[in-house]
């Protein structure tokens, strides 16, 4: 049976696009896959690779984007699967119209909700999620918090299915080889603390750099690498990214790689990293939602030792290695846990063992 996905897709610089790419690369081993590509740039082109057909159809930034779907969908698709994220499809009437169109075009409609809004947000968020629950035959989420939030909001438990976020397995190259390939001055042969991912205001990168000042006093020959591209989802993201980039350039021992990271660069960075840090901040009132970090799964895919804040996005890691999680915003605790992650051999071995086990349970293959 053919599966038709409605999703962001590569080469878009987006976590959902990467998720869809990893997912379809495995799925095409078993069945025909059509990707109705949501694009926000001019790079997306219609392509066919064996059983995978990618069809760029509509720009979600244009009002009424859902109307474009009717031009390409067959009268009845066997199965349509939406990779839904509010940052892609927005939180207005368009997602409601989108699902109405898709419901008419298929006998089986599945929606993967990468973010689930908490009921405290109320209004349009709860309306959208309730409507999805009525229209979809199944809703997939990535953890139990998301699942029970939907159930509390009235979605039938029979429709809600928990499938963990997939994990791509990265090979870990010899460090010397990876250092040479990266061609970064000043980090070769050093202990490396790595942050990788989008630079946004919900990432505590300023706190990370403040904690790094403490770490440098306790651990010799250590460097901090901040790797990623700015992502502007809110007006605060613009100002915050500007401050982060300036501070990174001014702070001794910090190396900035300000670019979108492809698989090759991720593999090299993970190969040299001793510790990967995800310093997420708690969300602000009115922004409460549950989601899962794709970047966390990339780090776990290389079996890395990770330090993460205690926020919903990092719930999986908190369950795996609570010893290396910290209170968001507490720079002293972040510094303490990072030092432990770098120097405590027994704890490092424990963390890697648990991470590798979880990687095997969730690998895309």
Description:
The chain is α/β, with parallel strands linked by helices and 365 residues long. Helix content is 39%, strand content 20%. It has 13 helices and 16 strands. The strands form three sheets. An eight-stranded mixed beta sheet has the order 3-4-2-1-5-6-8-9, sandwiched between helices. Strand 8, helix 5 and strand 9 (160-162) form a beta-alpha-beta unit. The longest helix has 18 residues, at 345-362. The protein is globular, with a radius of gyration of 21 Å. The mean pLDDT is 91.
List the helices and strands and how they pair.
Elements: E1 3-8, H1 15-27, E2 33-39, E3 47-49, E4 52-59, E5 80-84, H2 86-89, H3 93-104, E6 109-113, E7 115-117, H4 123-135, E8 138-141, H5 144-152, E9 160-162, H6 175-182, E10 191-196, H7 205-218, E11 222-227, H8 235-250, E12 254-257, H9 263-272, E13 275-278, E14 289-291, H10 294-301, E15 306-309, H11 315-320, E16 325-326, H12 331-343, H13 345-362
Parallel strand pairs: 1-2, 1-5, 2-4, 5-6, 6-8, 8-9, 10-11, 10-13, 11-12, 13-15, 15-16
Antiparallel strand pairs: 3-4, 7-14
What's the β-strand tally? 16
Radius of gyration: 21 Å
Content of β-strand:
15-25%
| Low-confidence segments | none
Total number of helical segments?
13
- Percentage of residues in helical conformation: 25-40%
Major sheet: 8 strands, mixed
H/E series: EHEEEEHHEEHEHEHEHEHEHEEHEHEHH
Structural class by helix and strand composition: alpha/beta
The N- to C-terminal Cα distance equals 20 Å
What integer is the average pLDDT? 91
List the strand order in the largest sheet: 3-4-2-1-5-6-8-9
Shape: globular
